[in-house]
Structures are given as structure tokens and as C-alpha cells.
């Protein structure tokens, strides 16, 4: 007897799921039970906390709204949240022993917005501890496995989110991107993900890593599915001091990104839909460190865009290599400040044995934090210390401004969007860099500059690589500030022309 795919995976988009729900062909309870069963049976270690009672409660509420005919846009859609968003009911651990038993009394803004839109949460997703990592190997609860090959990493820090979507456990998931942590796992797992402009999505209730860099973003299979989530997630929040009230003169509210997406679609013609679009290709992205299989996939994707009418323009982002040292000064500095609150006094792990207050704090942190978090705290504390602040932190901030200026010069003078690789290689085997913990930092070279500049960027599948040509490759599309709708429309056109986003693990 042929194997039947789980019910929630029999629809190829959120739009198709919504149509089936509204036609009462399926119920939210049916979809929730199907997703719960898949999540509980999975061996990927993508989920950290599943509570069927909480999930089915949300599903029953969704079915009631559907029956009443007043269903919001994501009503009944099964999703899951990266475990750095605080949630009522489900534990919020940030994949750390420091918060192993923490349950929040309130929901993060992103969680609340998606719940108000009717989405049904299946649970909390594994990630690198406090979102610090590029492979999802730093979780205190074990690494997430890549659905394409369980011996390989899914990328980080939102590896659980990308793996859950790629494996068909949920229709979409939330993630966070500090230096590439939505785009990189999306690329390595063969799904789509977008980091919006910094400040467009509220950080309220998101466990902080680097406050001037952290930004929430969705992961899903298609660009249109990303639009469904991001348009709901976006909006001004007075509880977040970095939240933007307006985006280039337009109110930062739900509907902005969808309106821009629709406008961009209307501008596409029939014969050459992307005629007039100038694509900047940074020469610094195609250096000796870029693997040949990744370079070939990116080149093929660029040729697809040219066939759709776009024009390729070679540009220069001369400070690309400086993004690594700048980021790994600024982000650890902010992390060392943000993580001071975990002292064993108010909340978080407290050591069982200690002599005085100083020893309690020291032991609690040593026991509660993993090695990568401790490493970044030490780096951050050092660069902020007296005598080194000017030499390291201020210099890094100056370089950050220069990197942002490089992007602005490119957009002003040469191109409308920028394209290139997300990562230098396909996914690596789990544990391959265990003896060289900072080697993963180098894999972020193509994503860090965008985060330092606060620009929107996304990853979409564009090929397969690796020894057996069975590991996904992602194309990065970078836009100017507040251009999320345009990026999603460009990605959607590519996905109408190619089928890389439809490839699934084991079906390549």
C-alpha cells in the first residue's frame, strides 16, 4: 500500500491551506493533529517543547472563527516558533540550560501577532543557544539534523525552524536573524527565508542577543508564504524602543508589505516581467573562498533572472571582508551586556553549591551557559573594557557605518537589488569544526554586512551541490531599506520559473 503524506503536507502553500480550511474540506483540528504527529515522530531534534493541549486549544478556536465566517488571514495554519520568542504555556529556553525550565507570563509581539491572525502553534523550535551560532550545534539540547542528510548541520541559529519547514513538519516558522540566522539555515535546508529591515518587526519578547542587530523573520517554502507571515508580523510597537513608526513615510503596519508586493507584481510585464531591473553582483562575493558548486548554482540563477529581462551589473562592496571582524566585535559586546541579567538571582539557572554571592553568580553562569555563549561574553566584555573600548568597539562601529555607506552607494548609483550566495559552501557535517570553534564565523561573510547595515535580505533555493549533489544551495537577494515587498515579488517570479523551492528531501 503506498504511503500517504500527512494531511497538512498535502497542500503546496498557505494559500491552498487557507482555501481548504475556508471550504471546510479540512479543519484546523485535523491539520493540528497531523502536524503534531509528524513533529512527535520526527528524529531531527527540531522541536524542544510540544504541548498538544495548547495546540489543540488554538485549533479549536480557529475552527470556531472559520465556522463563524470571520476567520483572520492565517486561521488554522500550523506554524512553530523559534525558542527565543517568549510564549505563554510553552517553555522558552533559548536552547540553554540557563533557561531550561523558564515559562513566560506573556507572549512576544511576534507570537501575539501571528496568534491574532489565527495561526496555530505546534510548539517551540530548537536553535543555537541564545541564537549564537551558524550550524545549530550549540544548543544545550543537542544539534538539529538537516532533513536532506541527517549527518549534516541545518545551519544556524534558526536551524530548527528551517529543518521543520524543509521536513514538512509545519507550513512555516518564525526565526531571528542577527548576522544571517534566517538566511543561512534557509539556504542550507532548501527553503525560503527573509530578514526584514531592522526595526520593522517588534523585538518585544524576543530573547536578546545583539540588540542593534536582532530582527525577526519568517521561514517557509515559498516567497508568497513568507509574505503571508511577514505582513502580519510587521508593525510599530511602542514597547520596543527600536521599533519604527514609519517606513519611508508609510506607516509601519500590517498591509504595507503586501501593498508593495502587489505594486511590484503590477509592474511586471508578460513577456519580460523583470525588464529594467538592475541586479548588482558584488565581485567580492565571488572570491577564492566560494565553492565551485555554489558559484555555478548562483550563476545559473542569475542567468534565469537575465532571461526574465533583468540586467546584471558588476558592483563592488569593498569592505565585505571587514564585516567579519566588525560583527564579531559589536555582536559579542551587545551580548555581554544583554546576558548580564542571567546571574542566578532573579531567574535562570542557579548553582546548587556556592559560598557567597560572587561565587553563586560565577558558578551559575559557568554551569548555565554553553562554551560558545561564554566565548562571546568574554570577547564582548574584553572589547568594552577600559583601554580597549576605543581601539575595538568604536572602530568596529566606524567600519559598520562604512559598510552601510557601501551598500547605499551601490543602490544609488548602480543597481536596484543585489544578488549573490548566502554561504560559501553547502552544509557541513555535524562536528567537523569541533576543534576550531571560530571557523564557523567565516561562513557568515556574505550575510554579516547586510545585518550591520540593517538592510532587508532573503534566501531562496537555487540549486543542489555537495559531493552527491544532494544538499541545497541558496541565492541571497538584498534590497534597500523597506523594500521587502519588492524582494518577495522578485523571488516569487523566480519561483514561478524554477522548481528548486518545490524540491524536498529524498525527492531530488
Describe the structure.
With 508 residues, the protein is an alpha/beta fold. The protein has a single domain (10-323, 392-502), classed as Amidase signature (AS) domain (Amidase signature (AS) enzymes, Alpha-Beta Complex). The chain has 15 helices and 13 strands. The model has no long low-confidence stretch (mean pLDDT 96).
Known CATH architecture: Alpha-Beta Complex
- State the domain count: 1
Beta-strand percentage?
5-15%
Query: What is the overall shape?
Result: globular
- The unreliable regions are none
Main sheet strand line-up: 1-3-2-4-6-5-12-13-11-9-10
The arrangement of helices and strands along the chain is HHEHEHEHEHEEHEEHEHEHHHHEHEEH
Features:
single chain, 508 residues, alpha/beta, 11-stranded mixed sheet, two-stranded antiparallel sheet, 15 helices, 13% strand, Amidase_CS, ATP-binding
Topology record:
Layout: H1 14-22, H2 28-41, E1 47-49, H3 52-68, E2 78-82, H4 109-116, E3 120-125, H5 159-166, E4 172-177, H6 183-189, E5 192-195, E6 215-220, H7 223-233, E7 246-247, E8 250-251, H8 256-266, E9 278-282, H9 292-307, E10 311-315, H10 323-338, H11 357-368, H12 371-384, H13 389-413, E11 417-421, H14 448-453, E12 457-465, E13 471-478, H15 484-497
Parallel strand pairs: 2-3, 2-4, 9-10, 9-11
Antiparallel strand pairs: 1-3, 4-6, 5-6, 5-12, 7-8, 11-13, 12-13
